[in-house]
Design goal:
Elements lengths: L5 E5 L5 H9 L4 E3 L16 H6 L9 E5 L2 H4 L1 H10 L4 E6 L2 H14 L8 H14 L16 H12 L4 E5 H6 L1 H12 L29 H6 L14 H22 L8
Helix pairs in contact: 4-7
């Protein structure tokens, strides 16, 4: 079986499930089911032959891939991924980091994976959580650190070249999903003729979209609302939001320059 020609690498809570599903509706594209294989961050010991067996494109399909949002954040995963896939393309979707972190926190709460009772307390606890992990990049509690996209993308580009990375914003996906899909098709070398037939089904079904899933997580996952279906959790404290936006201002300015895009609304 072939290795993937593309991977949607992140970021979590930014719309990766929606883009994965849009691509999966195109007859020229094959996407993994489950969506998140977690090979390069959690299951690398299974070996590359196991990973190859997960990809079964049909004759005539032009691109095939998976979507694991943790790959963009995790240094170890980026190294393993780029070493194993010397010719693949990589797609990132970036959400304004404070809203991403807040959504991530409530998502963790909905899965009973977060016991800290408020987002403000989780923010305060994050430095200790990061330092407690050997590589400083824990899966749990890294709400703000995951939103420092500039460092992650610069490292990825240093490994594969900027031309092999396509970056979307969550706002783009929300406002013009088919436009994002067309741009992605061009990036992947896929025919755009069937884009008009695609149905936009914004979903957040983490429980059934990962190789680590358990059926018991479905109901909790369904209760979690993402940026496309509206927020069911309380609004973030305005003072905390202003403070966090100030903390991210320099990083977002560097990202804006690197992308060549106006991110002033993030700042």
């Amino acid at each position: 079986m072939p290795l993937p020609t593309f991977i949607i690498v992140g970021a979590q809570k930014s719309g990766t499930t929606t883009l994965h599903d849009l691509l999966g509706q195109l007859p020229q594209v094959w996407v993994s089911d489950p969506k998140e294989l977690h090979f390069f961050d959690k299951h690398h010991e299974r070996g590359l032959p196991w990973y190859q067996e997960q990809f079964r494109p049909a004759p005539g399909q032009q691109a095939w891939g998976e979507s694991t949002p943790f790959y963009l954040y995790k240094d170890r995963a980026r190294r393993a991924m780029t070493d194993a896939l010397p010719s693949a393309s990589f797609i990132a979707i970036l959400r304004e980091p404070i809203s991403r972190a807040y959504s991530h926190y409530w998502f963790s709460r909905s899965k009973n994976a977060e016991q800290i009772g408020t987002f403000a307390e989780a923010v305060e606890a994050e430095p200790a959580r990061l330092s407690a992990k050997r590589d400083g990049q824990p899966a749990k509690g890294s709400y703000l650190d995951r939103g420092r996209y500039h460092r992650q993308l610069v490292d990825l580009a240093a490994r594969v070249g900027r031309e092999r990375i396509l970056v979307h914003l969550t706002d783009d996906l929300r406002d013009d999903p088919l436009g994002v899909l067309r741009q992605t098709c061009r990036f992947l070398g896929v025919d755009e003729e069937n884009v008009g037939d695609v149905q936009v089904r914004a979903r957040n079904t983490f429980g059934d979209r990962t190789v680590n899933s358990e059926r018991s997580g479905f109901e909790r996952a369904e209760r979690e609302a993402d940026q496309f279906s509206g927020e069911s959790y309380p609004s973030i404290d305005p003072d905390l939001e202003r403070d966090l936006r100030a903390r991210f201002r320099d990083d977002n300015a560097r990202l804006s320059e690197w992308l060549g895009r106006d991110l002033s609304s993030w700042m």
